[in-house]
Amino acid sequence: MQKQIKILLFFLLCSCQNKEETPFFMFGGPFGDSPYLEFQYGNLEEEGNVIEDTNQLGYESGLLCIYSLPLSLYRRELGGKFRICWKTDESIFEKWRLGFSILEEEKNEYTSWLEKGKGWSATLKEYGNWKKESDKLGFVLDWDSQIWSNGFVTYQTFGLPHPIFLQRTVDQCEVLFSSHQLKGTLNKQLVLSFELPCPDIGAITEKIQTQNEEWFSECEPGEPVVSEMFRHSESSFQRFLEWENPKETFLCPRSESLGWEKEGSKTSFRSEDFSKRTKLILPKGIVLFSDEPKFHGISLPKEYGSNIGTKTKIWWGNSEYIDSEFNFRQGDEFFSNEFHPVSCRDQFQFWTGTDRFCGNPGLPNQFQIKPKEGGFPSCSSGQFQITEFYPGNQFDSQFPFPSFFEFQNKGESCDASSLNWIYNDTIYPLSADEWVIQSNSYFIISKKLWFGWDLKAKEKPFSIPKFVFQIPKFVWEDRKSQEKKEFLPNSRIFHLLRFNQQNRYSIVRESEMEFPHPREGSSSEFLDYGFQFSPGKPNKHFASYISTDLLEYGPNQSPFLDFGFQGREEGLVLFERENGNQFLFWKPEGKTILTLGTEPSVCNGILFYQLPDDFFTNTLSSLRFLGIQNTSPTLLSWDPKFAKEKTLGETRSLHPEPNPIQFSNSLVPSTLCSGDWRSPGMAKERSLEIEKLNIQGRYFTNLSLGSQTNVQLGNGNLKIPISYVSLGNQNYQLNDIGLSSFFSEEQLYSYWSDPSLIKSKSFLERKGPVQIEAIFPNPKDSQNEWIYICNRSDASEDLSLYLVEDEVSVDELTSYQSRFPSVTPLGKNGQKFQTNRTILDPNVCAWIVDPDGKDWFLPIFHSESDLLLTVKTTQTIGNGISSGEFIQLRKKQAQQSILISSFGQKESFSSFYLPVITGEFLWLKSGASGMSPLDYEIFREEF
After folding, report:
1. Which of 340, 368, 396 is where one domain is finished?
2. Is 398 exposed, middle or buried (0-12, 13-18, 19+ CB in 10 A)?
3. Does 387 share its domain with 478?
4. Which of 389, 418, 421, 739 is 20 to 30 A distant from 561 in Cα terms?
5. 927: exposed, middle or buried (C-beta count within 10 Å: 0-12, 13-18, 19+)?
């Protein structure tokens, strides 16, 4: 309330004045021919964030005034301040103006200035020399850094130094004005010593005491908040930590120490100076800690200041701040970490350093200068568009090109110091001073500057991973309004930029499209070395997509893809996998095979395009691309389990083939990887593959059959040669004349052999009437194993004529009741069976169980019409079915038996084992032949 009354009084006194004139007589005062120091405390004359008048001198109507702060700050300072005024002529004003201008200039050996008048004298000296003389003279009273030697303390709104005041004698006083320059040491810095008559010291101390008592009576307990920080020994601003009272009320901190915690280690800082100067903090007041003596802040030891910007926790009483990592030096510019800042160009800076610096220690961060008329407007967060990104090649000692982001200004010409660029949660102010970006022009943000290139660029110490496949996300932020514009990459698009362990390509983004940089439009200086990018230049060249074919797929150790091309064309290649992710890479002129992999390896070498590490996952099951044959989208899809099985123990890579073959195998032994067959980047040699079609006896191959191809028909009892005829287009038909040599119920295989087959192969030509459709070889209770069989013929079958065979023994089947007439068997959940029959009708099933079992776990396909059978002895299922063991169902024919059904296809060229763990059972998929492990699904009993 008091503050509002004083502002109102000031307005009433000055409302009739010309606003262009300096109001020297606003306070009245006994101004005569000799200087008079008027001390003020508790007077707030202006508010607002625009600093218009930075002069520390004023002259009007014969009155000269010197202020303890630049005038706009003076009017906004509520705490201790003063002005020295006296009547004189304009020539004296000009001399004083010269003196203050010299004070702010770089000192040289010829610098001198000395003036005298009625009751006063003034001169420029080095601070070190002045200090020696001052110590010899002594003083009655001094006022330095808010503290009076008589014990009084003046509190300040701003964390800026006021001129030092000394009372030498009863009548003689001295005021020492310091430079705002930070260059050089304090002792070598110029100061302006002004000797003048003393003011009424008693009235000043009484004013301080009265005002402090009033403020302390109004203050609230509490601590300020962190508002700005900086740390860099190469900057003239050194290290500082700024705290601000964000409230319109007075604060009385409850704590007289700062706490620090880094990596679990805690420490605290306190000092007498700290205690005295912070017992009260004015509204919007600033408290500055620093180890730079020119700031005259609260002295902060270097061991504390050195932790600023290093993920340190700092607290003052209940006010806590978690410090984040911040790069105070960015290229040749320095930035403080400010909260609620403004444009670096527009921000008012009290101090002048030797470096390009953006920050304003000791002042509210929102303070800004008055904009120049006709100047460039500030850039907005939404007017820069990313046009190119290069991840850099800095890990390569031969061509260590730095990474860069290229942007185009899509709006009007503007000053870019108004923006922060936020990448990887780190803030990078764009420029420490005005940086004009013309409309439609380009600029880059680079890891390192491209010396020798005429590029509009800023260096920022951002970090880019070695392997990058997308333009990283980033944010443009307006420093003042904090409005943000975020760029998010398309998460479905991956660019393959790295070849031969070098990042060869940039990503171009034009008209919402993005692609690897084409050869056309690339900077010729880099193109000669195989690199395609063009920093700072328009990207107007769009390359066409070219067709390709997948030649080889290696899903084993060191996985890879080989794409093949026709002719010498160059352009973009696009392929898409089953999850919708798209991958783009550049096909150079003259290349006919390009390899894609995830890492350098012995097996693949280094001449490949780098894929993301997680590309070759178990879910990789299809690729879509522009095919060579029909120049239209081609889709290759496969079962990952089938692909793994096809690698023959993960020893051979795969070559895509037309359906239903899908894949053949490589016949090229790897010269780099012993025991493996693969040919990345080389000519292909593929195995012969044969697949059975849906038409009886019809086959399809990937290569033409020749005279060395041999085919037989039969099973373990008998095999006879059989012929085939070519139907064209690699289709073949088997002759069926050999079927008459076998029993009509007998399960038969075809047996194929050829030197181009990696291993001979069999196909199921005819099934028996009863088929093994499920098996539970390894239940929790070992005696509760079972085999599930079904009659899939049109006639009933007497299972008393059937045998069950494992790898060592054969047993006859019998009904369960025949062996155990007094037992009523049930399933685990009370399921019932037909226990007294062996006749299995069409589409009825039966369970063959261990004679010692009971309370069997039965899956959902159990039916109460199912027969329950066991064996007459305990040689096969009674002794336990081993996991993965061959099981065969045979039927007695006179003195021999014939094969009816098989699990594992023991008597074929294509036998297999399919082991399971305890509690798992196997169920034949509907319509499957059972010739492959992939024909079975694995289910588990829930214990």
Report:
1. 368
2. exposed
3. yes
4. 389
5. exposed
